[in-house]
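Page 47, continued from p. 46.
Same chain as before, 193 aa.
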Amino acid sequence: MAELTPRGSSRVVMHDPRTTDPEEELVRRSHLSEEELAQVVAVLEAMGRWREAERAMNEESQRYMKLGESDMRALRFLIAAHRQGVVVTPGAIAAHLGISTASTTKLLDRLADGGHIRRLPHPSDRRSLAIEVTEETRRSARASVGRSHARRFDVVAGLTAEERETLRGFFDALAATADAGDPTPADDQTRAH
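Result:
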């Protein structure tokens, strides 16, 4: 079922199981009223809009700072650690990003060549290095990523305590779906009852 957009062209519906899973092979919905189903679809569509907005914000920040996604994730980690007084080693960056030590070395070389980080002697472990973000990069990140984060913080702060708790539970439950894996046929039968 395609929907017409204001310009008259059709739009593919992405989150409505009535069109994407009409036989209820994956999404059980027969227990929901039409109103409840419409609300669920509206939430999923809002999540899609948020993912798209966040992707666009991330891409804009990456373009502004002329960096890739892993580079930006490493810089955010380094900035947060600096603010907390935590010394960051290449191994800590590798663990945070889930990449190999060889990939981490290449990433740090790129960031150092771009003037984004400094490699310094570790203050307490002479066998290791401490990695720090340069002040110029910290200011640039604050001007791009920091401002976006502040706007998101303000939206959440504007909610009631109950709304925040509901959202926290919602996002925790969504995060748990990533760990759940694919259900087995037995799981499907258990959830159907």
